[in-house]
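Hi V.,

You were right to ask for the full record rather than a summary. Here it is.
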Amino acid sequence: MWIFRVNRLFRNSFRLISILFIISKHLLKNSIYSNRFLRRLIDPKGKNLTSRSERIRFMIEDLGPTFIKFGQIIADRPDLVSDQLRNELKTLQSSARPFDNAAAYRIIEEELGDPLHEVFQHLDHTPIASASIAQVYRAVLHNGETVAVKVQRPHIKQKISIDLVLIKILAEQVVKSYPELASFNLIEFVEDFGVIMKKELDFTNEASNMMRFSEIFKKDDYCYIPKVYSNYTTQKILVMEFVTGIKPDAKDELIAKGYDVRQIAVNGTNIILKMILQHGFFHADPHAGNLLIRENNQVVLLDHGMTASLKPAQIQALINFMLGFARQDTHRITKALLALLNVNFYKEQADLEFEIGELIQKYSYIPYDKVDIANLMADTFKVILRHGLKVPTNLYMLLKALGTIQKFAEALEADISIINMIEPYAKEKIMEKFSFDAIINKVINSAEDYFYIIDRLPTDIKEIVNNLRTGVLKHEINFREDSFTNKALRQNFNRLAYVFILGLLMICATLLMIYQPTNDGIKILFYSTAAILIWTGFKLLFNTKFK
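Predicted structure:
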C-alpha cells in the first residue's frame, strides 16, 4: 500500500538527514582541529587534541552499528586504508546501550507465538550483554535448563538495510569521482559487506553455524560449542545453552585458578587451524570477547554470526604456500598465491616471483618457528595488490582469523609457534590428497567427465551443423579494457584517424596551391603538410611496435 511506501520513504529520508548531520558535525570538528589558529582559540591547552584517525573512529561510532561493523571489516583491508587508520579502527567496539525490556519481551512473544510464562520458567529483567545488533538475557526453561536468549534490536534490520543502500550509493559516487579507486573493487567490497550483515541479521544462520561447528568438534575435548534450541530459534531470536567460564584475557585469574595458559593457547590455535585446514569453514572473529575458558583448559566459542569458507583448492594452495615458505621455494609460493586468488595465468608471474623472493629474504633471518604467519600473509597480500590482482574477501577473513588467534596466544604470553602447529595438518592433507581412495575418486570423476563429453558430442555436432545451415552461428570475442589487444586496436584506430585528417589537410593544401601558387602562406602550409605526411609515413613504416 502507498502508506507503507510513504513510511519507508520517511524513514530513509530521516536516516539520511541524521547521517548527513553526524558527518557534517565531525567534518566541522575536523576542520577546526586541522586549523592551528582555531584549535588554539577553542582548545588552548590541547586537552581534546585528537589525531585524524581518532576523529574518523569517533564519527563511525556515532553513525551506528552498520558503520561500526563496516569499520571493523575495513580494519582488515590494507588495500583500502592506511595502517594508522586500520589500527585505530580495530579499537571499534560493537557494544551499545540496552534497549527497553518491554520491547525485547514483545519480540520474543511475537517470534515464538506464545506468552513468556509458557516458554520460560524464569527470564531475567536485566540483559547480561548488549551489542549493536542484539542483546542477551539469561533464562530458565520449564525443564530446568538454563539458557541464553539472544534478542534482535527492534527495527535494526530496516535501519541496517537503509544504511547499506546509502553506503553503496556513497561507494558508487566515490568510484565515479575517483576512477583510480576502481581497481580496489570498492563496490564489490560493499556488496560483500551487505551479504555479511544480512546473514548476521538472520539468527537461523548463526544457529546453523553453531550446529555445524558442534559436528566438527564433537570428538574433541578441547573445544565446546553451546547447544542450540532449534524449537525456540527464529530469524530474530536465538536460544542457546547458557555457558559460564573465564575470559581468556583474564590471565592472572586463569593462573590463580590452576589453568595452563600455554595449553589454552594451543587449544585455541588448534580450533582455528582445524576449521581452516581440515574443513574449510571457520569462525571469522575469534577475539577474546567471543571465547570462554572452562575446566581442563577447554575453549568455548561464542557469537557464530560471522563465518567464512575456503574452497578445497584454496586449502591446498594455503598448504602449498606454507610448504614453499618452509623450503624457501619462491616459485612454489607464487604458484600457491595465484591458486589462492583463483588466477590460472598471470603474464607478469616472473616479476611477482621476484618480489616474493625479496619478501622471503626479509623473513629468512627469523627462526622458522618464530615467524608471524599473519604478518607473512599480510605482506604477501600487499605484493599481490601492487600487481593489481584482486584478493577475495574470504582470504581477508582468513587473515583476520589467523591474526586474532595469534594475538590471543600473545595475550596469554604463551610461547607457541603457529607455523609449526600447521605442519601436522599440512601432512594430513597431503596424505589425504594422495590416498588410494582420493586417487580412485579422481579417476572415476575424470572418467565420468569424458563419458559426458562423448555422450554429448553427437548432439553438439548436430546443433553446430544446424546453426550453420540456418546462418545463426555466431562467434563472439570480448577483450578486457586493459588487454593488450584492446590497447592495440585503440592505438591503430587513433593512427588511422590521424592519417585521415593529415591526408585531408594535404588535399586541401594541394587544391589551394593549384589555385593560388604565388601565395606565401599557402606555400608554407603545403610544404609543411607534405613534410609532416612524409615523416609520418616513414614512422609508420619502420615503427611497428605497440607502446
